[in-house]
Amino acid sequence: MNNNDIIIIGGGLGGLTTGALLAKEGRKVTVLEKNNIVGGGLQNFTRKGILFDTGMHMLGGFRPGQTLYRICQHLGIMQKLKLQRVDSDCMDEIYYASNHTTYRVAEGKAGFVESFATHFPHQRTQLQRYVDAIYEVADEIDLFNLRPTGDGIPLHSERFMWSADEFIAHYIDDEQLRDVLAYMNPMYGGVSGHTPAYVHALISALYINGTDRFVGGSQQLATALAEVIEHAGGEVMGGAEVVRIAVDNRTVTQVQTKDGRSFSAPYYIAATHMGETLRLIDKGAFTPAYTKRISNTENSYSIFSLYVKLNPETFSYINHTCYYQHDYNQVWNLGQYHREDWPYGMMYMTPPIEQQNEWATHLIINCVMPFSAVEQWQDTQTGRRGEAYAQWKAWHEQRIIDRMEEVIPGFTQCIDHVWSASPLTVRDYYHAPQGAIYGFVKDCHNPLATQIPVATKVSNLFLTGQCVGLHGICGVPLSAITTAEALVGKNKIIEQLQNIAPK
């Protein structure tokens, strides 16, 4: 096929958003996705009549005038999305089992401060300074605020590259409150002493501004983005697993798929984990130093997920996200694994369905887990991992259920059926090395090592996705803008987004 302008490898959020932005600019795009259904972390799956999300459970930035709202308006898909706002007086609920304390977190800057000042009145002034600092750091990033960027190196405040835990401690005296304020840690793979303050600030500001949920599954966003590409004459192909990126003289000549097809175009974009891109591309395409640097960059931790079908009218629908912490002083250690102590914390939610009533139909529970926990089965395939692995999974499923019983006595009686996914599932589904859910670990002490430019030394190959920027529902589309503008012109898309008024 030689009638493409751009070929994108990977049909997750990064590939689809980049493709849609380029299609909006008149480019003809072909997206090649290894799974039969495109979407990556947006994809849904069905078990016993229940539709489960695989990744995007909480949405920040979709309110009028906010970042994702403006991107979706620009692409003409905002009206296609069915969203439900979470409770404004409790967007998040945090339970600490050690002292049976529950913190209910309201949205908005004032609500956020008051939520914690109720429990820590002596820290009210500090909380206000802390929240102000979050927004000041977030305001330093032009892309996050959809502002045009200049040609020079951006200048940032000193605190921008503090570690996230150092940032919190600078404003908050109370050690217990410091721990509680880091509760969003699982949303960005936080590591004590390493995760930059700006990551913590961006994620915090994004959700403090108000969160939403997809009604009826997150696949709808993937479908809407794919339609933008297709309406512009492009194609989004599932079941097209790329097995080789062919390179000659530092130029991609074609990509080859598992079923023997070849695709060529003037430009290519890899929307996969960088470790996967290195596996696919011809040896020698990148310099040994670049290859070594990427190969040695630390991946984020992974996740163990429990998917629960609930018995009818047994479990109330909860219109916010719930966090469980076993004890204080553990929130920065969630990525560690000691079987008898696992999980230190978890996040659970009841996704809304069409015509949602007072009863939940299903529950999703996510627990951080490093790949080391499943490393002994790393050479196995789905469905062929053996009895020992099945027993290991069953033990961890029950462990999560036991934790839920601590929070909600009688929870076990609400369960109709459970399924689970381990870091191996994440690795095999996304082709993400070590099942990393957030790409590479960001390090405030060595930022250049984990910041990868969207343009590569292969002249017509570009990158997109969470490995070249921030992760998640907001970060990946922002990286998509950077990649798309590398092809259509700097600030060309940003300037259009600035003209979108709230509606």
Q: How many alpha or pi helices?
A: 14
| Integer average pLDDT | 94
Q: Roughly how many Å apart are the termini?
A: 41 Å
Biggest sheet layout = 7 strands, mixed
What overall geometry do the principal axes of the alpha carbons give?
A: globular
Q: How many β-strands, per DSSP?
A: 20
Strand content: 15-25%
What is the rounded Rg?
A: 22 Å
In helices, the fraction of residues equals 25-40%
Structural class: alpha/beta
Task: Describe the overall structure.
The chain is globular and about 65 Å long. The protein has helices spanning 13-24, 67-75, 109-117, 124-138, 164-171, 175-181, 197-208, 219-231, 274-280, 288-296, 387-407, 423-430, 472-488, 492-498; strands at 6-9, 29-32, 44-47, 50-53, 59-60, 83-85, 92-96, 101-105, 211-214, 235-237, 242-248, 251-257, 262-263, 267-270, 302-310, 321-325, 345-349, 362-369, 415-421, 461-463. It is of the alpha/beta class. The strands form 5 sheets. A 7-stranded mixed beta sheet has the order 8-7-16-17-18-15-19. Strands 10-2-1-14-20 form a 5-stranded parallel beta sheet, with helices on one face. The protein has a 3-stranded antiparallel beta sheet with strand order 5-9-6.
